[in-house]
Amino acid sequence: MSDQRDNNTEQPAQDNAAPADSPRQDATPATPAPAVAAGPAPAARKGSGVVAWLALLLVLALAAALGWSLLEQRRMQSEIDSRLQAVEALGGRDQASFDELDRRLRQQLQDGLTRLEGSMGELASDSGLLGQAVEA
């Protein structure tokens, strides 16, 4: 195959001048494959392996902390919800007792006003009698 590449590089003018009916022998470009460098790469991998493990442990620790934080937040939210429900239940009872107290006070006020109107009627008639007694 390298012989074919050599033939292709030695005769570029002939290939350009050749008629279209002649078949090409090799369609791949004549660039050599890059060589893999062998050397200090294993030493670099050992150091980066430790760094990779530390990075992985850090990511796992952060993920665990995030999970714990979310669970703690849900627990605190459920505690707040239960406290709020307890306060609302007490508020509902207090509202019912306030409504009852309001009803009783309004009834007492109405009864007091009725008695006061009756007393005022009596006072008006008594004052009329006193006025007549003074004139007589």
What does this structure look like?
This protein is rod-shaped. With 136 residues, the protein is mainly α. The protein contains 3 helices and no strands. Helices cover 81% and strands 0% of the residues.
Topology:
Blueprint: H1 2-10, H2 12-17, H3 41-135
Q: How would you classify the helix and strand content by structural class?
A: mainly alpha
Helix and strand pattern: HHH
Mean of residue pLDDT values: 79
Number of strands: 0
Q: Compute the gyration radius: what is it?
A: 53 Å
Classify the beta-strand content into a percent band: under 5%
Task: Classify the helix fraction into a percent range.
Answer: over 70%
Number of helical stretches of at least 4 residues: 3
* Low-pLDDT residue intervals, each spanning 5 or more residues: none
Give the overall form.
rod-shaped
Sheet with the most strands, sense and barrel status: none
How many angstroms does the end-to-end distance come to? 155 Å
